[in-house]
């Protein structure tokens, strides 16, 4: 079974594979990227156009998501909770698996992108590396091009990075360069888009075409109803007593964030200790004095102290 969204992605992949069209966005929209279609095109060339070939990439995205979540949880909370989390995700609800395994445009990728960004932020918070900054920017750019639902996760990972590495200006330059590369299709389109056809205008028009409701109603539906629905505790017409899980989830999320910050602060490298008075710095040994081969009191008054000679010599 499939649906119109998955069929559209398949059609875009066929056009790319045949070289007849190279879309930047999902057909009919100007803000959801066509990454899935570009990944489906080589699969169609190798295995032929089919639904099974189109869904191969979704399995790979799921593996990336699970691997990143396991590594992230292991770093912050330990191996036991990481394995427990992996087991819970492997037994996810039908709704979660449907979003992960159907090539319907953006949903399988943004979960993997969000987990990868948080993992990279944690890695950078403990040990800044230039390649990791560039990778963070590239992943964030691809994520923003793919689907704007990932923006809250990009913002959260970015805030973590700012909190721990705001002084690393060279790293931020690499991050910006990586972001420009990842979001290049989105940026290139919007530079030349006609008035009213830019991604932001199209997105706001689509959002305003429905009945979004007040902010309180959106929080109620997204948290108190959406979380029990996504985790399989209830069906759309039967969510009532299960609404408590949405509130409990929010409390657990805050607690997990606090524990994560505590773990990151304890993992920060300590400042190197100052050498004791008269001791040679690390990596050096004290050269014997010309007077008495360095015996105590053998340096004459007014002479320089024993020299520090690199140990490698």
Spatial arrangement of strands, main beta sheet: 1-2
Q: Give the strand tally.
A: 2
How many helix segments?
14
Q: Judging from the principal axes of the Cα atoms, what is the shape?
A: globular
Our estimate of the beta-strand percent is: under 5%
Structural class: mainly alpha
| Distance between the ends | 72 Å
Radius of gyration: 27 Å
Average pLDDT works out at 83
Domains (count): 2
Residue stretches low in confidence (pLDDT < 50, at least 5 long) are: 282-313
Largest sheet: 2 strands, antiparallel
Structure description:
This protein is an all-alpha fold and 313 residues long. The chain has two domains: 4-204, no CATH class; 211-250, no CATH class. The protein is built from 14 helices and two strands, in the order H-H-H-H-H-H-H-H-H-H-H-H-H-H-E-E. It has a two-stranded antiparallel sheet with strand order 1-2. The termini are far apart. The model is unreliable at 282-313 (pLDDT under 50).
Brief summary of the model shown:
This protein has 14 helices and two strands; from the N terminus they run H-H-H-H-H-H-H-H-H-H-H-H-H-H-E-E. The chain has helices at residues 4-18, 35-47, 51-54, 56-77, 79-90, 94-101, 107-126, 130-146, 151-165, 169-182, 184-192, 199-208, 215-230, 244-267, and strands at residues 284-286, 308-310.
């Amino acid at each position: 079974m499939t649906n119109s969204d998955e069929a559209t992605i398949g059609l875009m992949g066929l056009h790319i594979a045949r070289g007849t069209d190279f879309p930047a966005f999902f057909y009919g929209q100007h803000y959801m990227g066509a990454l899935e279609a570009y990944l489906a095109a080589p699969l169609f060339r190798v295995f032929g156009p089919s639904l099974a070939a189109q869904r191969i990439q979704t399995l790979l995205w799921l593996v990336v998501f699970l691997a990143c979540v396991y590594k992230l949880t292991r770093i912050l909370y330990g191996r036991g909770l990481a394995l427990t989390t992996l087991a819970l995700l492997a037994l996810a609800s039908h709704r979660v698996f449907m979003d992960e395994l159907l090539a319907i445009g953006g949903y399988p990728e943004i979960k993997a992108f969000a987990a990868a960004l948080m993992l990279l932020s944690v890695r950078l918070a403990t040990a800044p590396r230039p390649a990791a900054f560039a990778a963070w920017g590239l992943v964030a750019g691809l994520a923003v091009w793919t689907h704007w639902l990932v923006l809250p996760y990009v913002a959260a990972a970015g805030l973590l990075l700012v909190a721990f590495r705001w002084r690393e200006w060279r790293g931020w330059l690499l991050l910006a360069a990586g972001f420009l590369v990842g979001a290049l299709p989105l940026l290139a389109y919007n530079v030349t888009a006609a008035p009213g056809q830019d991604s932001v205008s199209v997105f706001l028009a689509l959002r305003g075409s429905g009945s979004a409701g007040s902010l309180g109603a959106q929080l109620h539906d997204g948290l108190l109803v959406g979380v029990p629905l996504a985790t399989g505790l209830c069906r759309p017409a039967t969510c009532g007593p299960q609404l408590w899980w949405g509130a409990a989830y929010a409390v657990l999320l805050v607690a997990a964030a606090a524990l994560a910050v505590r773990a990151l602060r304890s993992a920060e490298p300590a400042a190197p200790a100052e050498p004791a008075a008269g001791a040679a710095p690390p990596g050096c040994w004290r050269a014997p004095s010309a007077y008495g081969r360095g015996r105590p009191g053998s340096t004459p008054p007014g002479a320089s102290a024993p020299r520090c000679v690199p140990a490698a010599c």
